[in-house]
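A reminder before we start the practical. When you read a complex entry, don't treat the lines as separate problems. The point of joint prediction is that each chain is placed relative to the others, so the output describes one connected object in space. Small molecules and nucleic acid strands, if listed, are placed in the same frame. In the example below there are two entries. Take a minute to note the order of the lines before looking further.
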Amino acid sequence: MKRGKRIGVYICHCGRNIAGYVDVEELTKKVQELKWVSIVRQEKYMCSEQGQKTIKRDLREGLVDRVIVAACTPTMHEKTFRRCVSEAGLNPFLYQQVNIRENCSWVTEDKEQATEKAFKLIKGAVWRVRFLEPLFQLEYPVVPSCLIIGGGVAGITAALDISEAGFRVILVEREDQLGGWGRRISLGFPKLISVREYVEDRIKELASRPNVKIYLKSEVEEISGFQGDFQVKIRLNSGGIVKEKVGSIIVATGFSPFKAELKPEFGYRKYPQVLTTVDFEQLYEEGFLEGEGPKTVAFIQCVGSRDQTLGRTYCSRVCCTVVAKQALLLKEKFPKAKVYVFYMDVRTFGKGYEELYEEAQRKGVLYVRANPGEIYPKNDKLCIKYEDTLLQKTQELEVDMVVLAVGMDPPNGADELGRKLSLSRSNDGFYLEAHPKLGPLDTFSEGIFLAGCCQGPKDLVDTIAQAHGAASRATRIFHAQKVIKEPLVAKIDQEVCAKCRLCEQTCNFNAILYDERSKRMKVIEAACKGCGACAANCPSGAMSLSHFRYPQVLPWIEALLD
Amino acid sequence: MAFPAVLVIGGGIAGMQAALDVGDAGYRVYLVERSPWIGGHMAQLDKTFPTNDCAMCTLSPRLSEVAGHPNITLLTTSEVIKVEGKAGEFKVTIRKKPRFVDPGKCNACEECLNVCPVSVPNEFDQGLSLRKAIYKPYPQAIPNAMAINESECRKCLKCLKVCEQKAIDHHMKEELLEVEVGAIIVATGFELFDPRKKPEFLYGRSPRVLTGLQLERLMCSLGPTGGEIRIEGRVPKRFVFIQCVGSRDRTVNHPYCSRVCCMYTAKQAYEVKERIPDAQVTICYMDVRAYGKGYEGLYERVQRKGVLYRRGIPSEIYERDGVLVVRGEDTLLGEPYELEADVIILATGLEPSDGVRELASVLGLKLDEDGFFQEMTPLDPVLSTREGIFLAGCCQAPKDISDTVAHASGAAAKALALICGEKK
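Here is the predicted structure of the whole assembly.
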């Protein structure tokens, strides 16, 4: 392979992000003196069209044959610049990005040190890019079917979209019917319409779709493979196993309500008059509130939410509006009942939710900003002791009924399923999305997407929006009919390989195997994640990782240590 | 068979996400944006909550992706004026107004800026700086080309003489384009409430009363002060933030919660303390709505940084001996108070964007009582009141960036199902 002789180094100011801490002028001077560097340029924003045009011009004029951009993290802009250089005819793998923002300017106030470190990182890259080789994207066919785990509202919504687009859906639900919590909600908010009817209509529609296969009382036993070609084993109620092949996966496993017993001071299951908001929904459906009804009712918000003592610091997002709705329903049925809501902040943020909260107040629901401490029996009633944080007084209130607004926990089994799918979880235990702003539906496992509450608490409306979104993300490769993959995969030098099979044991992704027919070790490129563990473990040096081969990595390290 | 293309109206983060999802799936997308550049409001932000990441750093790869996407046809300075047909078979007429600069030729060298004699308030900086009649709002703007505002230009033609690329043409004419699409995604975003409608807060009368977005521009390295929080030449020390300005307020006909202000205020308060550690920062609020993933954590971090949350929205601001005074009642202490401030930031809420009424009538869509687009069923926020037209982002109701992105992908899913479902 021809080594690079004319390296172009492009230094980005990133506004003040880099230029505020790294002395860009000084850096430019020092880099210019490096051997093999033919051009050093600076730009306020290298990623701007202007910056990209500069690089392209230098390439087209033949001034450079390797490109280094010293800017932000490659996760931000490596794609941008790879595309930029390839548009000017350079193989994108002859490009290297150096992170002088997150790794330099953002981690110190010391301008001199930041500049020195930036120089070293660039020097390392200069020594490496000389030895880089052109590589080409890999392409694989796609199985145009989607596995959806969880048959609640999120799973049903996504399944409908995907089957409507003409692709096959495998829907796995561990309960004996579809619908999840959607079946257990009486009326939705902000408009008090029947959720159950909505959900049942969707289920009927789904059942009529010939390209949807539903497995009830079943669980995902094992998943292997990769984006475009996953192999799934589903354990049926009978104990039998069914195998399916899918191209992508949507996780829509929902949530578990917080167990109110974990707040023993509220007496759930100890006093029959203490319910949760979940119980309320069910009892309302069953018409429990016949006859005279309760005279005084208290709702307590944030039970299992925003509570450090329980390790649940997050807000569960739905409870405030659920309570506004339930208080309103109660008040409509029993106009004479006194209904209190104990709250910290009223978070009725969604479309029409504030109006629902107002309506509840107009109907006479009394909101009390307070921290209830405990509930105890008094006469034949219950007494709530609380501190009114507006009046700054400790008070007591006698009630006939208490409703605890329980928050949302990650669903049972989130841990186990997360391991099977290699999904990360955020601090709160919910599955972690790829990016908090721009990638709320994607995960770090390619081909696996999130819908609904398994990613974090949310109401029905937001769940439905997200589920539609997951359907779009999960079917992009079906429409495109292929998966494109980075060529950063393990390569075997068959001449050197002694077939000790250590690599096979090392690989966590089942991407290496011994091929009996050819009597050779073989890398399944589509499964290889490019982690390099096999290359590091190979005693003979036969195994290497493309783009990170020894001759490419060693000079890099040498320069950094120099 | 449905036309295998989708029209996306609005080039903010919602429109871009929807366009990318449809484009990645291999279908033609016409992305129509009425301003000369895409990017929307997110481009004006310095950071995004709850992680306080740099907004431009996450946005700019998206901008480049849209610009370089082989399946996305970008139509800026354009508006949809007529829609005929039905779901699967829409015929759309688009009016493309003249940019007076050929984006294919312009390389944004900015020589023209030096000679243009016109200076007007820069809307991108929320009026905190001036710009020329020929301009580009920020370096990463896509398309990377200048544009001339017709009503401001004096036709002195000085820019024409300095333009080496010969990119400028003052005689460009309006064009009408017709496209055929199977589905339409509306992503027209929002506008901020005008705090002049709450005269008690002195906005527009004191230069030390800002909106949240103005503070955002002051904190941004590309903003009018290069990222330094300076007002009238001085670094303020006493900050008072007022929440719910134009939200949850029936007196200005905005009964709804705007869903983002609590968190953008928390983020800004955190950044102020980060940059001016001895600043005294007070946030006046009704309820702190830190509902999203990681939001409660930010709310806690802000408080640990020494920001004081004070419950109760102030009743007025007045000037006493040249000093701004906030008057309100602390509803936790049950006491009235007065608080002196060097700068007051109004967390203005979101309202439907200008022109939605006309657009709704062109598209045959219904608006809700607040002026946002109405859904076919209240449970599904993606379906508009007309078949084949889908909603994405804040045009349906206020939402933050994550919820907007999820929602926009949702609209893309429905559009894709419609245009390719029949074919299979």
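Discuss with your neighbour: The CA atoms of residues 193 and 394 of chain A lie 39 Å apart. What might explain this?
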